[in-house]
Description:
The chain is an alpha+beta fold. The chain has a single domain (2-177), classed as Gcn5-related N-acetyltransferase (GNAT) (Aminopeptidase, 3-Layer(aba) Sandwich), CATH 3.40.630. 28% of the residues lie in helices and 33% in strands. It has helices at 19-25, 29-32, 44-53, 80-86, 112-126, 142-150, and strands spanning 2-6, 9-13, 59-65, 68-77, 95-102, 132-135, 154-165, 168-177. An 8-stranded mixed β-sheet has the order 1-2-3-4-5-6-8-7, sandwiched between helices. α1 crosses α3. The longest helix is centred in the middle third of the chain and has 15 residues, at 112-126.
Amino acid sequence: MTIIKAGKLLVRILKEEDKYLLAKWLSDPEILQYYEGRDNPFYLEKVEKKFFKEEDDATRCLIEFNGEPIGYIQFYEVDAEEKLTYGYEDSTELIYGMDQFIGESDYWNKGVGTLLVSSMVKYLIEEKGAGCIVMDPQTWNGRAIRCYEKCGFEKVKLLQANEWHEGEYRDCWLIEYRGKVGEEM
């Protein structure tokens, strides 16, 4: 099922046969440096457990560009525990979180990530009714943060020692999008 079609970009629901691509990407040290950590490769069994058997409310999708599979994105309603961590415990608005990576490094630094993130923001606002969209990139990941800021996200809170990555807890930025579709993008 297609979630987004924007020019050469297509985002569709993950299929069982996509597990081989996820295992390829998530065992590549170049990709793992930014997503999950080089000390945490995902081989087929781990991919099946995390992406196909884990019980949560995330919608898991494959990213295609010009007909080629290039990465992964997931989105989900932020739960009560995350709302507390992020400081939204009193909020009544619908808050969505998203995580993504481009697994084919040939597509890095070409505007594909910006198109992906801005298209997903539009989808979450228009189709899912999101009032706020959040992500928590690690503070050292400048390329990702610049992409998100280009798409209208703003840093709102430093999350100290928030994510285990390559043998240590790393600081992350809580970033949020609160604009209307078409603003900042």
